[in-house]
Amino acid sequence: MKIYGVTGWKNCGKTGLMERLVSEITARGYRVSTVKHAHHTFDVDQPGRDSYRHREAGAEEVLLISGKRWALMHELREEEEPPLEHLLTKLADVDLLLVEGYKREAHPKIEAHRKEAGKPLIAPEDPTIRALASDQPASQHPDVTCPVFDLNDTAALATFVLQETGLLRHAAKTA
User: Fold this and answer.
1) What is the per-residue pLDDT for 170?
2) What ranges in 5-152 are assigned the alpha helix state H?
3) Which of 22, 40, 33 shows the shortest CA–CA distance to 87?
4) SS3 per-residue string spanning 69-100
5) Which domains does the chain have, with CATH numbers?
6) How far is CA 131 from each of CA 18, 149, 155, rounded to the nearest angstrom?
7) CA torsion, ordered 69, 80, 54, 37, to nearest 10 deg
């Protein structure tokens, strides 16, 4: 399984870019999964539902299954957040795993950047960032040595990711 990330500061377009990349790359015939890192508490369950009640009662893991999907929820309780490497062992094998967030991990990444967010670029100081997806042209980023793409040029960004991961060789069969 090949791994590629999308990173950047809050409100710089990471989630939208992830969504578009998943759509574009799966349309080309690849199997894609995603990991999203949240910096805050979240819940995928509903209070009062059976699975919620199981977790609230103290279950460490709850596997919820229907005819359309299954979901495994694992409560950390007071444990530390596990590293990304450990979490990847929980996923089924696919062609490409796209990871949103995880700025400090060593996998290759695209940095999403919007000028209006007012945040500094990460790319000039981080060798794991292999491309910048920006709402400004490359001429506005003189300190960036990696390729600069238009934030909305999903097709070009998808091709770049597929080239970087060595998956593009299969594109002739699926395109």
Assistant:
1) 52
2) 14-27, 50-56, 84-88
3) 33
4) CEEEEECCCCCCCCCHHHHHCCCCCCCEEEEE
5) 2-40+81-174 (3.40.50.300)
6) 14, 7, 14
7) -30
- When pLDDT is averaged across residues 112-117 and rounded to a whole number, the result is 96
Burial of 64 (0-12, 13-18, 19+ CB in 10 A): middle
Tell me which residue of 126, 122, 110 sits closest to 158, measured CA to CA.
110
Confidence label for 55 from pLDDT (cuts 50, 70 and 90):
confident
Mean pLDDT on 138-164: 97
Q: Can you tell me the distance from the alpha carbon of 148 to that of 138, in angstroms, rounded to the nearest whole number? A: 6
For residue 75, the model assigns a pLDDT of 85
Q: Global pTM?
A: 0.87
Order across the sheet with 109-113: list the strands: 32-36, 96-100, 2-7, 109-113, 129-134, 148-150
